[in-house]
Amino acid sequence: MIIGNQKKLYYKKKSWLTPKHPLYFESEEFKMYYAAAVMIHAAMNPQVPPEQNYELDRLVHRGLELRAEQMALALKKSANPSEVLGYLCDHMDSDEKRYLLMLDLYNISSEDDPSEKEQENIRLVMHMLEIPEKASRLLAHFIQAAGQEKDEQCRRIYQQMTEAKMELSLMELKYYRMTLYETSLCTQKDLDKAGKLRLVDRCEIREDIVLRDGMVLRLDHAVVRIYGNISIEGGTLIAENSKLIRKSDSHRACVNIRRAGKVIMEQCDIDCRNYGMFLRAQDGEAVIRDSEIYHTTRGAAVRFWGKTLELTGTVFHHCYSRENGGAVMARDGKVTIRQCRFWHCEAVRGGAVYIRQSMEIRNCFFKKCYASEYGAAVFCIGWIGDGVSGLRYQECFPERTETIQYIIAPRGLEISGECEIGIHTIVDCELQVQPQGTLRIHDAVVYLRYPIRCRGYLEIEKSFVRADDMEANDMIILEHARGCTVKESRLDGMGRKGGIFATGSRMEAYRSVFCNMRGTRAVFNAYFPQITQCIFNYCQNGGVHCQSGVVEGCLFVNCRGKSGAAVTMLGKKGMINNCRFVRCISDISGGAVDKAVGSQLENCEFQDCTQ
Question: pLDDT tens across 390-415, in order?
Fold first, then answer.
């Protein structure tokens, strides 16, 4: 049989829009025998062989969603018609199932008049299932009208079915003619009665409903307006190729998982209409794939502290929260966020995502996400490991701190091995680097709320370290450390704190900036330091205090101090070379530089410096 290109495109579109079959929720065994019965009838079609019968393929692949092994078993069972018909006679326990089987038999029959073999098989099934002749004629006329795309005629036939008290709804007939629309209501009474309920077309949920143990609510190619809330207490909510519209101004989330529930959403459009959050899960599992969630307020669109959360290929936009996490806030459980996009999301911390340590975010894109405090895109409680990678940002604010980790420990953290900070970090506890430990800070913005105490080795490279509501006087305290290196970085005391207090420790600083220091000097009590090509700006208690060492090629601007506002150098082996001092003023003596007799001062320039 040759099929034209236009027909192929029509079939492809129809397959993509096909909802689940009304018997989709039945057991696998029942669906297998059901498919076998339809295959037996398809073999009697003289015009189209079974392997080319589109409606048969749509039924087993899309409607019933049989796996390959199930289809193979169904094909094997179709070789024994008596067994198949015997099973169906025993398990067709409602008129609805009998009518649906007749509809499927008519649907896969010849497009014109059925052949004699097909008619004989239909009469046999009618006799065995005790289907009245009038009901069979109505079903046949409905399939004929659906095939000819005559919606008005389908509705008239459906009205005749209703008058004949046939147990079929327009929702179930939607599988055979997908353009039939009817706004239906979903109530708690319907759920309690059916246990498993499928919504298609236009639906409304006007009250709070609860999905208890064993209950399943499936939204299949539906447009659902939710005026109440959906609470899941052991049940399952499944939405596929549907649109959910929030119509309630309740402060509660649209969907609440309270106890061992499950939510699965694929290819859905979820519009919360600025009426609050979408999903709140304190238990259970949630899977959202290839969907779009937008216009959420009051809290994160997805608030989760259950067992498992999986977000894949989902778009979040215009999600606003007065708390943490504009789009996603996850406090517990196994969380995976992959290939998602976030734009126009706002919150206090974590403009788009607020997570905890060990949670996974990969290959996501953030655009125009904002945080009033920290983390324009992602805010993580704890250390960010390998689970966060491939993140891209565009026009997010605050800049340079799109992703930030928050380190906190009540008793502080001891570092006895190798430790790296390569991502923007808030340090809200004291970091203690033991003698055998090494702390490396590179390519990061670090907010210090407690000082870094180092007796090991400290390295700061291409980073910005700033004081943030600290109580201590110095940002970094070296206590007879093995060494300290500051390279191409910036240390900012925010006009309140000092820089590096180096007791009996050697340090090196290269092409770095020390600014806005107050309380103590930018570098105090360093032993033989090597400070090269650095800038010291607005150091209100002095720039450098050291024991000998080398200060070379540096710029000191607006430094103040009792004596030696820019540099105070003790010892006889020091060198201050090729430096420039601008407006460095001391209160007592020394002007810009106060050095011991043996130290050398060469090729330096002074401008507006007084003592």
Answer: 999 999 999 888 999 999 998 889 99
Q: What is the rounded radius of gyration, in angstroms, for the C-alpha atoms of the chain? A: 36
Q: How far apart are CA 501 and CA 480, in angstroms?
A: 11
Tokens of 459: 């390295």
Structure token digits, residue 432:
């203690």
The pLDDT tens digits of the residues spanning 215-269 come to 999 998 889 999 989 999 999 999 999 999 998 877 779 999 998 899 999 999 9
Q: Is the separation of the CB atoms in 401 and 372 below 8 Å? A: no
Rounded CA-CA distance 376/84 in Å is 62
Which range has the worst mean pLDDT, 3-7, 126-130, 270-274, 432-436? 3-7
CB 573 within 8 A of CB 547: no
Show the tokens assigned to 140: 């046949």
What are the φ and ψ backbone dihedral angles of 141, each rounded to 5 degrees? -65, -35
Contact 507, 488 (CB under 8 A): no
- Contact (Cβ atoms closer than 8 angstroms) between residue 596 and residue 545: no
In eight-state DSSP terms, residue 52 is G
Instruction: Say which DSSP state 397 is in.
Output: B
Euclidean distance between CA atoms 184 and 441, whole angstroms: 60
pTM of the model: 0.74
* Location of structure tokens 């097909």: 118
Neighbour count for residue 464 (Cβ, 10 Å): 19
Separation CA 555–CA 562 (nearest Å)? 19
Q: Please give the backbone phi and psi of residue 137, each rounded to the nearest 5 degrees, phi first.
A: -65, -40
Which amino acid makes up residue 164? A
23 vs 31: CA distance, rounded Å: 8
Say how far apart CA 293 and CA 297 lie, in whole Å: 12
